[in-house]
Design a protein that fits this description.
about 425 residues, alpha/beta, six-stranded mixed sheet, 6 strands, about 55% helix, elongated, transmembrane
Amino acid sequence: MKQRKWNGLLTVWSVIGGFIGFIIGEIMLAEWEGTMHETLLMGLYFGQFALVVGLCCLLAEVISPQLNGRSWRLRYARDGWKLLVPATLLLLFAAGVLFQFIYGLQLGNRDKPQDYVLLIDMSESMKTTDPEKQSIQAAQALIRKLDDRKRVAIYTFNEQPSQIYPLTQLKDAGTREQIAAKLNTIGAPVGRTDIGRALTEAMEHMEKERVPNRRAAVILISDGFSEVDKAKVLTPYRLQQTQVHTIGIDSTEKEGIQLLQSIAVETGGTFHDVKRVEGITGAFDQIYQNGKRWHLMNERVDTAASNEYRGLLRVALILLIGAMLGLSLGVVFDNRYLAKSFAIGGAVAGLIAGILLETGLQGSEAPFLVRGFADMVLAFVLSLSTLLVAVGDPNAGSGAGLRRGGGGTRRGQLEQGESRGRSKDGLPVRKQFR
């Protein structure tokens, strides 16, 4: 016989767990978005979210065992603590990695930029952070690697941007060497940093020299911080679907690092904290080879922004995340009837959360609010799974446990023996468990 159950305490704690998981997730995104590969980042995001929600649900059921019954708390709750980490953190980490890989998979090189604009900081502070002008040497190495179809422009900047070379097609080795030689004429660093002005100048040049069906990207190298009206400066980049990849040299300049990271994230680019100038060449290589990056919990940009396939894929993958989160709760409770109910309920919760993310993130000025709402809805609807999907009676079938099927579990046998007033050895008992 199936019946609908509900644990009000579990619902409250599940929502609390969803909120805590959201806060931890936002800290992760703030610290690692743009620096950590997005597959690993999404694995950690969903893994920790599942762990926190699972922990809260287990605590609620231990305190008030409305779904599993009192005998579960007495005999089997301790098994839930052993299963908690592998069933939630590890399972959803693996799912997050796999689903992000699928979501970010790109076939071919259609989305890779054909035009690159390099913005190299030449303010006074670069005398200390880059005394040997290794940023210039890295730019020369990149120019020599780009194929004949690419165009490149180079600017240096302090409080005033200066064009070293306009957008020029690298049609042969001679052109590459000519541009590389021009970089050797750059003077000594001087003045203050104005990143916003450099980005504006670069966009004006790209719009002037733009060729239809050619994507462009900016690579910005800096060691400092400047006040930037990001809403004004970055709006043209979003409209033109132009990524800004940023490279921070001096990691002790916290405000500068945060600025560069936010510029990259808001334009769909990547941020590289090289700490030492020797790492700039490696950062250039990663930018050139990897191209576009975005993940399941953030806005899509560039050519994927209005891609209906990507939108449907995001919803489908978040649905599967919800189903696996529900399944993980069933594993923690060691109850296949609850596992079925929570998996179905989790799929419904994931579907709703996926739709909220897909419709809310695109063009949102506060994506963290969209993520927070979706996370809370996912946790709330998940907690109602046993109301949405009736739960089977473990005493009516072959047992409730996940680990022992077929002939029945020890839990099912004990509970049935107790209901008949007999011990597990078949002998009468004077007192039943209540």
